[in-house]
Design brief:
Layout (H helix, E strand, L loop, with lengths): L4 E4 L1 H16 L3 H17 L13 H5 L3 E5 L2 E7 L3 E9 L6
Parallel strand pairs: 1-4
Antiparallel strand pairs: 2-3, 3-4
């Protein structure tokens, strides 16, 4: 099984941090930590070369040739290269309007 390198850009990490901050603001700091750990485990799992996700249907991301995958109630948008995955966005799915 081959593995690709996974790179996470600042907008994606900011999205994860915002979600964790929201959860923590509800008084659930342990849940926020588990959420962050889960997101980064999920992102690391995208390194498997056998897995390829559909292109995004959101028009802006489609123009940028992003691929999309859902993690719980969030959408992860990334660029797929032969040896690397670059995660560009992590946003709540309900915020994607077009």
């Amino acid at each position: 099984m081959g593995k690709r390198k996974v790179t996470i850009l600042d907008p994606a990490t900011d999205g994860v941090a915002e979600a964790a901050y929201f959860i923590e603001g509800k008084g659930m700091s342990q849940t926020a930590k588990k959420f962050v750990d889960g997101v980064f485990e999920f992102c690391a799992g995208l390194a498997d070369e056998r897995i390829e996700h559909r292109p995004c249907i959101y028009p802006l991301w489609k123009k940028l040739h992003y691929r999309c995958v859902t993690y719980k109630k969030y959408t992860v948008a990334y660029i797929l290269y032969k040896d690397e995955i670059v995660i560009c966005e992590f946003v709540p799915s309900k915020q994607i309007h077009w």
